[in-house]
Design a protein that fits this description.
- The structure is a homodimer.
- By secondary structure, chain A is mainly alpha-helical.
- Chain A is about 60% helix and about 5% strand.
- Chain A is built from nine helices and three strands.
- Chain A is globular.
- At the A-B interface, helix 3, helix 4 and helix 7 of A face helix 3, helix 4 and helix 7 of B.
- The structure holds a DNA duplex.
DNA sequence: ACCCGCAGTAATGTATACATTTTATACATG
DNA sequence: CATGTATAAAATGTATACATTACTGCGGGT
């Protein structure tokens, strides 16, 4: 759902990709109605693949079907965005608990620990500055590894679904932000939570793992709320903020 | 998503409805590939609304897109079905916790208590037999009221999504079953949990509400597992069992 | 026996014409 | 002034022809 399965071979895949970019980049604001004809013309394709692309993005949760037909770019209040992050925490918590209770292989644990080491390496010797790009990358890897540890297809699927909302992705708020001090501290806390989470899973402490994952998401949630989306005309680097209207 | 918003006015809505029935009734087994042309011919419509209907059912989670195009009826292992019920419990638990922590109106509490009374009335004086039909109906009402108490659109939406899997619906296993004694007792337990859940929400005991809702779903989960789906050629009355293959 | 490639067939992908419904506007009416 | 209604415009719904891609089975090769 999230990955680029789009081989970009046919018009529909290309259209889906393009449209998704428009939405995530904020080229079309939340609440905007998408007209088949307009979309088709803009992408220089016929209405059929345009419609199909919109259907797929509706499946992804980026668009909404209107009762009378057609699609609207889904819009989210700040509360919705915060709730989406919290929900990710709930589901990651469930995945973590299931992984802990069912047990995971040595190889999976080791792979996760390697990611943790990579994340540790992103913090400089002085403890002050850090490599945001790499951190963001390995952070995504860590969260993917967590999902893979849960053997429930159903839980994995719903988790992927929630993560496909751009601002609910684990790495959504990991970017170089202007007011860096507090944010930098929150990353240190987050990384500590990563370590504890891996440990809890390894020790098969299900409840602990669940609660750490939840709290970990709330760290991200706090970053969203302090970012004050609509006010400061926040960095466009942050994906999907155009969908947050209220 | 679950409700019949389908006005049945146009071909697509009709096709969506028909196809959904086929799938839930088990007329097409899980894993079956649905060919546009075959579906279109069977419903005496053209390929376009047939395709559109399949896209919508994919959105609902009843169909899956194949990589090379086209759709397959989604199939679930028994574990998947059990996980889906557990996931419903997780999400209902989250809804219950949020409702408890945020607080709900007097009117909402009273409405839920009325439903509880209606459910109580389904148990006969003797405590032995009961009205399954009514119980099933009011049980669905109770669970809907619970969802409504949660003010998070995001959580509500995902919960509705999970509930749209036919066997994950709260009332899925509330039917007159042959081996009635143990099942009947489980309904008594379930009703007790309903009472406790309402009380916890009213008292704003978030964690308690969450845990009761989880445990409540596990009661349903146990009913699924004892039903031994593939073995006894279980009652066709139970919806969506045809999707459970393993 | 197994693998590979090459049709032929059957499916999905795409464009487009036409049908139907929705929506916007102007106007009449209480 | 508000409300409802008629009507035109513009959107989506539907069917279908044609294009392209995926599947299947056969035959040749090693």
């Amino acid at each position: 759902m999230t990955a680029d399965t789009e081989t970009r071979t046919n018009q529909t895949s290309r259209a889906t990709y393009e449209l998704r970019q428009w939405i995530i980049n904020g080229d079309v604001a939340g609440g905007t109605r998408l007209r088949e004809i307009a979309v088709a013309e803009k992408l220089k394709i016929s209405r059929t693949p345009a419609r199909e692309a919109m259907a797929r993005l509706a499946e992804e949760g980026l668009l909404e079907r209107m009762g009378s037909g057609g699609f609207v770019v889904r819009s989210f209040s700040i509360r919705d965005a915060a709730d989406a992050i919290e929900l990710r925490g709930i589901l990651e918590g469930t995945a973590a608990r299931m992984a802990a209770e069912e047990g995971v292989s040595r190889a999976e644990i080791d792979a996760m620990k390697e990611t943790l080491a990579n994340l540790d390496a992103c913090f400089l010797e002085t403890g002050e500055l850090m490599d945001f790009e790499k951190y963001s990358e390995f952070n995504a890897v860590f969260h993917d590894q967590l999902v893979q540890m849960c053997k429930s297809t159903i839980v994995r699927r719903e988790l992927e679904r929630v993560k496909s909302l751009p601002f609910a992705s684990p790495s959504a708020f990991v970017h170089d932000q202007p007011g860096g001090a507090a944010f930098h501290r929150s990353l240190i806390v987050a990384q500590q939570q990563h370590h504890e989470l891996a440990q809890a899973i390894e020790n098969r402490e299900g409840t602990r793992a669940e609660m750490i994952a939840r709290e970990h998401a709330r760290t991200a949630r706090a970053n969203l709320l302090t970012a004050q989306i609509p006010q400061t005309g926040v960095e466009t680097r942050m994906p999907g903020v155009g969908l947050i209207v209220n």
